[in-house]
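QUALITY CONTROL LOG
STEP: pairwise intake check
CHECKER ROLE: data steward
CRITERIA: each record must contain a sequence immediately followed by its structure tokens, with no blank fields

ENTRY 1 OF 2
RESULT FIELD BELOW
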Amino acid sequence: MKQVFIISTMALLLSSCGGEKKEEAKEPDIKVNGNTVTLTDAQLQNTGIQTAKLSTQSLSSVLKVSGKVDVPPQNMVSVSVPLGGYLKSTKLLPGTHVVKGEVLAVIEDQQYIQIQQDYLTAKSQFAYNESEYNRQRELNQSKATSDKVFEQTKAAYQSQNVLMKALEEKLKLIGINPAKITANTISRSINIYSPIAGYVSAVNVNIGKYVTPSDVLFELVNPTDIHLALTVFEKDIDKLFIGQKLLAYTNTQPEKKHPSEILLINKDLSAERSTMVHCHFEQYDKTLLPGMFMNADIEVKNNNVKALPEESVVRFANKQYVFIAKSKHQFEMVEIQAGVTEKGFTEIIIDPKHENESFVTKGAYTLLMKMKNTAEE
């Protein structure tokens, strides 16, 4: 009886071990051949793979460029003194705000005295010549004087008039009103007035220095029309157009965006195969100063590109791939170039011979993991 019990127990244990072996039966191995992976029906069902053809999508990309804040020539003024002289006084510092017509500096020189003296002398002589001319004209009409005397008087009158007008213009050039000059108001100094409203960007002189007409005393900037000058390379120029919107930002405050619009695209290329694109700020910001470096994001539209859902593209060893369905169970991993990604789609740049294939749109990463794990075993 004892032997029967032992035999029954051993049979039960053997039966139990046989059941465990059935439960531990392994799933058939995934077949990998180079960049091709083959799945069984069960594996295909578990991965949930879906496929689709390339579709045409209208996607936009962002072109990142850099440049600096610039001022158009009509808004930047270099202030000089027309006839030279010594700088007597100025209170300007870089950054000082000035209004149009404000006195920027006082220049003095003895030549200013001489010009005023010459003008008053010429004016007095002109008054005499004019009176003499009128008198000789009346005498000539009555034949009381010769034509020669009259012509000489007329020539002297006209010459003096030219001299006086020339001196008047010289006075206006140095900022002196000829109508207000008298013997008692002759001055050795002149005022330099601001031709625009804005701020001082540079002061190039100091008190007591002698300046010539070619010297730039101050540089003024009218900030109301500052713009952004961007450097764009040749390959990207055809993506831009007048009126195109962009967002500009500085390196110190990248989160603060400055909406802008393309105003002008230069037609000349530099030696580096780039050109300047001028943009207008929609709203002037006083913190933006000429010469400040800025970056810009320009939205560029690419119409009718071939694309797949974003999850179709997998990355491995710093390269990008998609899986092509060679059959129901077989999939080939093919390298591609991924372009613009927007609205859940990615532009696919692939060998034209594959453009009409079916691509894995769901489960691509699962395929990649199974393929690489199998290859490592």
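ENTRY 2 OF 2
RESULT FIELD BELOW
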Amino acid sequence: MYTPKHFAETRLEILHGLIRAYPFATVVTRTANGLVANHLPFELVGGVVHGHVARGNELAQLDGAEVLLVFRGPDGYISPNWYPSKHETGREVPTWNYAVVHVHGRLRVIDDAAWLRRLLETLTDHHEAGQPQPWKITDAPDDHIEKSLRAIVGLEVAIERIEGKFKLSQNHPARNRAGVIAGLRKRDGDGDAELAALMSIQQESEP
């Protein structure tokens, strides 16, 4: 991934934070038919990510394969009109701000019903936590859960390398960055509030 120095994010707590906040990843791997991409939610546990797929998915047959997981945070178009400097010099152009984390490792396929059940319990407890009446696996009949577990396999990727690119206007002076944050909040489109919040956190965390 092309990452200019001012956009590189190396702090593990920040990278892990994005994975936890945006756990739906694109999984890229090479097969006999070329590159394949799948889209799956993962759970980060220490330096490992866990997920699952249907047995019919090609990933279920790729134990040991090298994989790239792309976790994408908020993103959005940035208008040069939001830069105070544009109104002074005109020397600004549009861009796109975003945050991504790339996880590199090897795929481990896990065919173990007890392991899968624990994973699904963890995933559902996590994502149902905000519901008025959170759904639990025990809400479904045992035979239905057993049938569902037979239809999937687990995935585990130990993180061998992790890299982050947080392109959040760090190459601009503070007043331009403040203008972008204000512009995003005013536009308030899909993901704009999240991108503005991430820019604010990034700016506050800088030395």
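INTAKE CHECK: passed for both entries
DESCRIPTIVE NOTE, ENTRY 2: The chain has six helices and nine strands.
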